[in-house]
Amino acid sequence: MVSKIYSSAHRAIIEKRTLELLNAEAGLVAASPRGVGDDVQELLSERFQEVLGELAREYKPSFARRAMADLAFTDVDGAYHVVDVKTHRADSKFNMPNLISVERLARFYEDDANVFSLLYVRYTTTEKRVVVDHVEFVPIEWLSWSCLTLGALGWGQIQIANANRIEIVEQTSRRAWMLQLCDELLEFYPKETAKIAKRILHFEKVRARWQAKKDDA
What we know:
217 residues, alpha+beta, ECO RV Endonuclease, Chain A, five-stranded mixed beta sheet, three-stranded antiparallel beta sheet
């Protein structure tokens, strides 16, 4: 299902309110990127319901540490959104944040009413204070594969290839995006299999060398 919460008008309101909320928070001080990320996540978990206002029907502010999202809500049309909050310091050169396991997303999207969303917060620091200059709030299927990649963890992790470059293609259908995900994985897995075969061969040789040695006295 396509939720109206991602229409241009509603998204603009949510992004503007999020930016204003974060910049009005006196407690957001310049720290390590991880520290800023934790503080932003905690603040939004506590107060994103205010940002959503009348667009949300039910709201869940927190999850276990290894959960797939930082907050969740059900909108007035019955769509269930889980939201992954990602922060990015604008002057950092490069980072590749994980979004979600491909297997977990595939299971989650078996229900058409479920939506996995990215709440991307870009910031700078000045005089020990955090200044948020850009916010994006989109379903994962609106992220172009030109700015995504796959990481070799478990079944595979969807990652942002470079957090300095987020490319959004609005109104991309979930069907088209998931089909492309499958195509990406069908290219990715054989490459990983070839790597594993090389590693097996390497450690067969390592084992043979150790097998030829005598035990220490």
